[in-house]
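Example 9 (inverse folding). The structure is encoded as follows.
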């Protein structure tokens, strides 16, 4: 778990600010303002990402998935996973102390849902903790929504995804959403990265659909594949397709 120094921005609270939430501090709002100078559509991206999460969980629930491992949960907002998948067992994992406190308060009387402190830099430890609540002998959906772009090291991310996929039995799913830099100019990329370098996460990077495809090797991609989140089981408008965006995809472990 990282600290609670309110002068250090947290990506969870910046995201909460973009979603119109109240669980953010002055330093988070200053960082958010600097991001908005470079990525003016950041709030729209946050909303589109959240809507994608809801559609994915609805789709997976309809497909019979009743166990979710949600990594990088974020502050509670609308349509949290356990509120969409009401009959499922849900394990929320985050390393932000404010997320953990709010999550535990929200879930105090929710018997099928657990909030676990965990750092995605250590996926094996997360899997060991999650195994106390989830049955990995049956299908599990692993959600990596808007978190892997805070891991700039490509080799590390590939290792994390591989580690998380290892215990998944056929019928299990991997769902990912991830920032894509679009046609953002090099100066904008540098300024955006500088803001995220000053957060607890320590960095951020956009990746392409081709890059994400590497994480889904051997999985069956749910149609329409790796696409802007607004295009996944939706025809939501993308006001500026050249702008910074969010890609999303769901893959299933074949039988
Ligand atoms: C942008 S929010 C996304 C929230 C939610 N998944 C969604 O898509 O709406 C990213 C979340 O990842 C968490 N996070 C960032 N780095 C992490 C790490 N190394 N380990 C665990 N959680 C992390 C942050 O605390 C934050 O709650």
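The amino acid assigned to each position is listed next.
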């Amino acid at each position: 778990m990282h600290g609670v120094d309110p002068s250090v921005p947290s990506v969870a609270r910046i995201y909460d600010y973009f979603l119109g939430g109240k669980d953010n501090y002055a330093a988070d709002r200053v960082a958010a303002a600097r991001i908005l100078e470079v990525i003016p559509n950041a709030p729209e991206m946050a909303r589109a990402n959240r809507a994608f999460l809801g559609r994915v969980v609805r789709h997976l629930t309809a497909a019979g998935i009743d166990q979710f491992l949600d990594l990088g949960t974020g502050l509670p907002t609308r349509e949290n996973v356990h509120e969409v998948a009401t009959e499922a067992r849900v394990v929320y994992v985050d390393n932000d102390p404010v997320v953990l406190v709010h999550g535990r308060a929200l879930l105090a009387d929710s018997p099928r849902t657990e909030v676990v402190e965990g750092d995605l830099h250590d996926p094996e430890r997360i899997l060991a903790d999650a195994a106390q609540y989830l049955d990995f002998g049956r299908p599990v959906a692993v959600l990596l929504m808007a978190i892997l772009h805070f891991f700039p090291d490509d080799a590390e991310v590939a290792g994390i995804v591989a580690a998380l996929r290892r215990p998944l039995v056929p019928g299990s799913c991997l769902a990912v959403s991830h920032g894509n830099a679009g046609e953002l100019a090099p100066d904008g990329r540098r300024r955006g990265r500088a803001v995220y370098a000053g957060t607890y996460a320590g960095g951020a990077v956009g990746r392409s659909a081709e890059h994400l495809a590497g994480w889904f090797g051997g999985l069956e991609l749910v149609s329409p594949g790796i696409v802007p989140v607004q295009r996944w089981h939706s025809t939501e408008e993308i006001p500026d397709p050249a702008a910074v965006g969010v890609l999303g995809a769901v893959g299933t472990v074949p039988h």
